[in-house]
Amino acid sequence: MSDAEAVGRERGPSEDVPTTSEAIDSPLLEVEGLRKEFGGVTAVDGASFRVAPGSFTGLIGPNGAGKSTTFNCITGIHDPTAGTVRFDGRDVTGLPPYALAERGLVRTFQIARELSEMTVLENVMLAPPGQVGESAIRAVLPGLREEVERDEADVVEEAWETLSFFEIDHLAHENAGNLSGGQRKLLEMARVLMTDPEMVLLDEPLAGVNPTLEEKLLDRIDELRREGLTFLLVEHDMDVIMEHCEHIIVMHQGRVLAEGDAETVQRDERVLEAYLGGDV
Asked: Which residues form the ABC transporter domain (predicted)?
């Protein structure tokens, strides 16, 4: 059994990555006419795109293209001014982050948001939904107390397996605030995985990460993708995008400028002009 399988998610067997046509016909995530205004500034201006289930899709664009705002609108950080977000066929536009997480749509942040005064293990154990939890009644009644103990034992076991998968189990009892930047990114991914997601939006997951941890994180993401998890990635490292993403969406001035595989995007003169400026 692979480390990814040991984490406990029940996913189908590894299959070939969905093609662009499959993304169009049966997307897991569908963004249609998304618009976000801040006062007189339009940060996202009618963006539309689709993400296929089980894919590793890149979302790129020059600074100010609207990528982060798009992420924030999809994941409930901002309420869109207009447009629709559908996940797994359901309209989830404007739902708060916790409601989206319950449906299997979660995200990471460019700056990891660990609970610094808690241990790495405790950070991970907080993530699973539907935990029984303790109460005065459960502490007194034997049957309910045993239920809490069984639930906690299951969470602890899954937490250790997840930390092992990301190779940070040796840091389990370290306060999260003492971790390096790269280790915090691995911890954030471990917490995300503990929510049993269907899709993860990654916001600059490699920013500030040294090459060794970068390779480790990319290996884990690729393994999880092969197990059936879907990823949408915002990343400024074009080498990573072109080498790892089978489908790439390019934004410019709040709109989707182009999309396709790496070769198609690299040959698109509109993309070159957006990044380099002027006529090509």
From this structure: 29-278
